[in-house]
Amino acid sequence: MRNQKRLKIGFSLSQTWLNGNAWLRADSEVDEFFTGDHYVKLAQKAEAAKLDFVFKADALFLNMKSVGGAHGLSSLDPTLLAAIIARETKRIGVITTISTTFNPPYVIARQLQTLNWLSHGRAGWNVVTALDGAYNFGYDEMPPADERYKQAGEFVETVRKLWDSYPNEALIVDRESGVFGDTEKIKPVEHSGKFFKVAGPLNVPSPGYGSMPLLQAGASQSGRYLAGATANAVFLAVPDKESGMEMRLDLRERAVSHGRNPDEIAAMPGLHMFLAESREEAYELYRETHGNVPTEQRIASVLSISGLDLNGWALDRRITADDLPPADHPVRSRTHANMIRRVIEREQPTVGELIERSEVLSAGHWVIIGTPEDAVPEIAEWFEDGAVDGFIAVPGGSVPCVNLFFDRLVPLLAEKGLFRQEYEGETLRDHLGLNG
Ligand SMILES: Cc1cc2nc3c(=O)[nH]c(=O)nc-3n(C[C@H](O)[C@H](O)[C@H](O)COP(=O)(O)O)c2cc1C
After folding, report:
1. pLDDT recorded at residue 4
2. Residue 220 Cα to ligand 1 middle (Å)
3. Which of 40, 41, 237, 408 could form an S-S bond across to 372 if both were Cys, CB 3.0 to 4.6 Å?
4. Count of structural domains, the chain
5. What are phi and psi of 350, to 5 degrees?
6. Which amino acid residue places its CA nearest to atom 12 of ligand 1?
7. How many angstroms separate the alpha carbon of residue 180 from the centre of ligand 1?
């Protein structure tokens, strides 16, 4: 095994196992979608399996096109959820998602520092530039992706300065001398940049667990640049092992070019798994989940991801690179648009073939369909071949699939020495191996 290292495993609390038709199942627990207890229960299961972290993706808009028949990105606020999860767990990392496009850095620095106190150093931040929702914040349209990433870079820098402005050593709290804070050690940040002007200091001291781990998602050139400069783990969408190897190597090289240790950036693609007791049942679960997604909905998905309008095309018509919209056609996520472009450039699929692909149905994630025993060798191979440092579990299809992940797949990985049997550290930095 590579350097005797072990997989890093996170669990996505976005209820992907309710996607497609799965929420209609009698055992889907969909009625608990908006209860905090549900997320706490999942986090406790993830902790019992000794996972590195749970994390909740987020959106700041409601998808009115899909909410009639699906959750349409309905979602509780992930940072408030993280706070109750922190309270009800002891060891697992708790990562929230916060956009750098629509929030003020001072407020976010403060919320995250608070979460780090509440969780005793288990907090993490998934830095996203947001997919949509500009109209909820006084803008007519989303700022261009490159601009959002420039703002994200400055946002992260400002938040980190704020975290450092009130260091743990400045917290004296000595009754005898009457000294609460050491004013010599508390420094303003006086940040003045293109996007933000913040004086500081923050009014929440550092809890002293080291720099908070950052997760990043978004794999365009500017997304990778931000990840290389700042991220400790990257939530990737990679449909095949080769893309994983390319992406992981690129992220490691970028970290080095920023003077960082490449082992401080973990490539963690989403692993969309359909697990069941037999292979046949697993395929049935996959088909049940996606089978009734109507062709029009799949074609609408191709259009919204890539800008390619296949309405009115015959299912057996081939699509070639010439059919693609210009490369700079505005899209929500260049990462996801490029995945569809790549399939078309490489394989010239028919319309029917394209709309069956993971890039259209499952956001381009690595998909495993089978028993937990089937999943182990594939995960081991991706890990040993350097395609991943771990993965973020994105179970599909059903609650029993989620349970098979926790109760069977993770213990199997641990038995094979691919994953920890017990927690060794206390903080998220410890779990991710960032403390040496
Ligand atoms: C795997 C993955 C997960 C993402 N999760 C979120 C999310 O939870 N919330 C969000 O606002 N944006 C999310 N994004 C969007 C990115 O933060 C980014 O805004 C978008 O992908 C555009 O960047 P790109 O051009 O680098 O793809 C995600 C992107 C990817 C690839």
Report:
1. 58
2. 10
3. 408
4. 1
5. -80, 165
6. 130
7. 42
Residue 67: pLDDT band by 50, 70, 90 thresholds? Answer: confident
Asked if residue 347 belongs to a domain, the reply is no
**pLDDT tens, 199-231?**
999 999 999 999 999 999 988 999 999 999 999
Question: Which domain range does residue 223 map to?
Answer: 2-279+364-431
Q: Would 427 be classed as within a structural domain?
A: yes
Instruction: Tell whether the model's pLDDT for residue 133 goes beyond 70.
Output: yes
Return the CATH number at 214. Answer: 3.20.20.30
The answer to whether position 292 is within a domain reads: no
Q: How many whole angstroms from 367 Cα to the centroid of ligand 1?
A: 19
Please report, as a single letter, which amino acid is at residue 341. R
pLDDT tens-digit profile of 353-367?
999 888 888 788 999
In the reported structure, the alpha carbon of residue 75 is separated from the centroid of ligand 1 by a whole-number distance in angstroms of 16
Residue 414 CB coordination number (10 Å): 18
The token duo for 81 is 């959820």
Q: Is the pLDDT of residue 93 over 50?
A: yes
**Ligand 1, pocket residues at CB < 6 Å:** 57-59, 97, 99, 128-131, 145, 217-220, 223, 235, 237, 270, 333-335
Amino acid, res. 184:
E
